[in-house]
Specification:
With 285 residues, the chain is α/β, with parallel strands linked by helices. The protein is 42% helix and 19% strand. The protein is built from eleven helices and 15 strands. The radius of gyration is 21 Å and the shape is elongated.
Amino acid sequence: MELFKKLFRLCFVSVGVVLLLSGLISAQDQDQLRDQVLGQRYYSRLDYIIPLGEIRVAMTPEYVPFEYKNEKKEIVGFDVDIAKKLAEKLGARLNIREYKWDDLLLVLKNGEVDIVISGMTRTLKRALDVNFTEPYFETGIVVLINTKYNNFVHCEKLCDALNNKTLKVAVVNNTTGEDLVRKKLPDVTIIEFDGEEEASNALLTGRIDAFAFDKPFADYLVAKHPDLAILTEQLSYEYYSFAVAKGDPDFLRWLDYYISDLKLSGEYDTIYKKWFKENIYNTKK
């Protein structure tokens, strides 16, 4: 059975390479090739990514410093550099596709993209719909406050200080931050936002009392706005992973190996240093 799978892939990839080199693959033909690969009993997305020379990556570019738009409206960031290196290892062109956060897993399952690399926490709930790689980044959910309006920053018990109906806590819809606030701070008034930029603006203007979100973005806001502070107790410790569609164990294993190799080779440290130790707060990059 394993021999059959290998022979099938060799033949399929060889045909794709010949067509590509002969200049016969149009955009429509590329979609047909993807459909043909996914329609086979034994397949991997690698079977069309490699011959087509393109990997489609979904992102929501609103999360500094992971993925965001610079002054030239280019999508840049830590995740972008990780994705560029991924495409390089595959010998493929990187095609970043921009979506709203709520649509990322939907377009992945529908086959519009090959992978999601967008600061996404792997959770048991999400893993019911998609598969996740080994983690590539460790993070957690923290609570931001504006010291102009509140002074909880030195409180010893986070939940006791914030769990009050008179306090308004911002969350971004369909994030682990929202889940944690509902679980750990059941008495607060939760204010929902569609994105982190809207929520942070509400915090800066005093329209909300606190904002629960991922620590890297919170660190960025604190560095940019001295009146903001992060409470000392984190709500959670979490991990970001790549998301891929179910039913493709070969692609998943290859991605796990890519993450491991990136870290062992020192390339991961170079990218990390660029965005988190040198220029994390320079959003003009």
